[in-house]
Amino acid sequence: SSVNPKPQTSIPLISISRSPSPFRRRHSDTNLSASETDDDDWGDTPMSSRQPFLSEAGKLTGWRWLVYGGGMGQFFFNTPLGWQIYIGILVLWLGGCQIGLTIMNRIILWSGYLQENYTAHTKLMSLIAGVYKFPYPLTTTLIEMLMTHCWILLSAYITRWVSPWLITAGLSGGIAPSRPVQSSSPGFRGLGKNTGILSSISRWTSYHRGGIAGGGFFEFDIQVVKTVLPCAIIFVAKVCLSNLSFAYAQLPIYVLARIAIVPLSLLFTYFLSHTPHSVGTISSALTATLTLLVATVRPNVRVTWESIVAGIFSSIFVALYPVQLQRTYKALVSQLIPQGDLLGTFANSSSASDFSGTREETRAYWRLLHYTSLLSILIFTPIVILSGEVTNIWRNCYFLDVFFHWLMVVCGGLGSWAVFWSTMALTRATSPLTSTFLFVPRAAFILPVMAGWRMPAYSWIGIGMCWASCAWFLVGRRKEGRNLERLR
């Protein structure tokens, strides 16, 4: 450089600076910068959270490509066959967990009935049913809600612990965020050198790290609460009324009182979600409902008006819950996208080799889990206290120290957690109608099992036609299926 540089006589019209434009990658919540994004959501790691550990991923083949080259995520979320397998896994998982939860609640609330009706033909049922009956459906529901929240919290930390393997497999969309939306003030990392338990709890509560959705154990954003509150209210009404009907009615009457779930779901998805249905979908869904009605009708059965009324009203909220769940999820995703960005462009925040979902979608899903569970507990706790069940339990329950009883309660809480998160996952992946329709094959499977395979002939005909209608529904939905542009 010279001492007297030549003065610049003109202003260049095009900047040749190599620095990127500040508007090139404007993304929400965690996309502040590359290094901050990696630390914010996926833990402290020196490498990019969306890149696999092996740089030469394209040369991997076989199972190494699935595990280390992002092939698993690419197969499940970017190919038609993989997407169908993924949906099938969710359907089988949710249906199996719903059946298991029904059996667990039947043992907890109806153990005396099971012992009287099933010990005659099986010796194992006397051991399974026990001699203890816990006829308090509201308290059972609250205990399961509390356990569900704890299991969600544990599952969020498990996804963070196994995040290196999920990232390399291309499934980073399932990792729970570890930091809040806005990054904490600089320099706080140096404050965390004390590794004691009390200091860790202090950091979690002071800096709002970890938890389920990245905002700590007590994350409570008012804006998000206003968005999720209607969904939490519907969920509380659904669970409360369903368990009340389940506790005071036999299983066929319980299914009969909630037989209108699928027709109501057809109406709600059409008018509230503006989702048109084909003739095959409507015909198969209504045929499956009618054949299930034939299979559940029993002559000369004693019923209580409480179970019938609770079952009818619960069917409304059961059909409405997935619709509101989908709307709430979309609203949470839109809140995380900055103004001016298009919904179809924020997918650039993830790597091209990872199709499991964007950071916005992941945070919205875990927020939906956290706030729905937390608000449901806060809403339902006063209802249980005002019902008087706690007082009756304190005075009349003499088996609260029995291990078998609490083992069944823990299993019920585990089943409630599995149903809770998989319902959200299936609704997000498919549609509210698909999640609601699982009521039909679940009832068609569990009715013969709980009846000890002793059913009249017309019930068996109804069960067979019901399964045929379910297969018809499956074929119709598969033909309507998603194309490649809608796949992740």
Summarize it.
This protein is mainly α and 488 residues long. Helix content is 64%, strand content 0%. Helix 11 packs parallel to helix 13.
Task: Tell me about this structure.
It is a single chain. It is built from 19 helices and no strands. The chain has 488 residues and is mainly alpha-helical. Helix 4 packs parallel to helix 18 and helix 11 runs parallel beside helix 13. The N and C termini lie far apart (53 Å). Residues 1-58, 183-193, 342-352 and 482-488 have low confidence and may be disordered.
As residue ranges, the low-confidence spans are 1-58, 183-193, 342-352, 482-488
For the record, give the distance between the C-alpha atoms at the N and C termini, rounded to a whole number: 53 Å
| β-strand number | 0
Let me know the largest β-sheet.
none
Give the strand content. Answer: under 5%
Q: Features of this protein?
A:
disordered C terminus, mainly alpha, disordered N terminus, 488 residues
Present the secondary structure layout:
Blueprint lengths: L33 H9 L19 H7 L2 H8 L1 H39 L5 H6 L7 H25 L1 H6 L28 H11 L14 H26 L3 H7 L3 H11 L7 H18 L8 H32 L22 H29 L1 H8 L6 H27 L2 H6 L1 H12 L6 H24 L8
Helix pairs in contact: 2-3, 3-4, 4-16, 4-18, 6-14, 6-16, 9-13, 9-14, 10-13, 11-13, 12-18, 12-19, 13-14, 13-16, 18-19
